Amino acid sequence: MFNGIFGYIIGGLVIGVLARIIKPGADPMGWIMTIVLGIVGAVVGGYLSGLLGITSTLLMWAVAIGAAIVLLFIYEAARKKKV
Questions:
Q1: Residue 40 lies in a domain
Q2: Higher confidence at residue 71 or residue 8?
Q3: Local structure of residue 53 (DSSP, 8 states)
Q4: What DSSP letter does each residue of 7-51 carry, written as one string?
Q5: Where is the signal peptide (predicted)?
Q6: Is the C-alpha dihedral spanning 32, 33, 38, 40 positive or negative?
Q7: CA–CA separation, 68 vs 60, rounded Å?
Q8: Burial 31-62 (b: 16+ CB within 10 A, else e)
Q9: To the nearest whole number, what is the mean pLDDT of the chain?
């Protein structure tokens, strides 16, 4: 149990940082939110990989990073103030 949670936190950190590096533009968020979005991206990416039948670890990471990037765009859109 602890190994799985710890793995998601470390993986989420890596995925969140990679997503922020790949996604263009400034993201005014802290490390905690980066980790949270990375963890959610990892979970969503893992789920999508399972649905698509992806078994390659490298492709699973790519899907998770892609999901985290999409989440960054959604987060950015939700934070924008309406005029």
A1: yes
A2: 71
A3: T
A4: HHHHHHHHHHHHHHHHS-S-----HHHHHHHHHHHHHHHHHHHHH
A5: none
A6: positive
A7: 12
A8: eeebbbbbbbbbebbbeebeeeebeeeeebbe
A9: 79
* Contact residues for 52 (Cβ-Cβ < 8 A; gap 6+): 63
Cα 40–Cα 62–Cα 52 angle in degrees, nearest 5 = 85
pLDDT given at position 81: 63
Q: What pLDDT, in 10s, does the model give residues 52-77?
A: 998 888 888 888 888 888 888 888 88
**Structural domain range at position 62:** 2-78
Report how far residue 54's alpha carbon sits from residue 63's, in angstroms, rounded to the nearest whole number. 9
83 part of a folded domain: no
Domain tally for the chain?
A: 1
Show the tokens assigned to 60.
Answer: 């699973």
Residue indicated by tokens 């993986």: 11
Instruction: Report the pLDDT value the prediction gives residue 41, as an integer from 0 to 100.
Output: 83
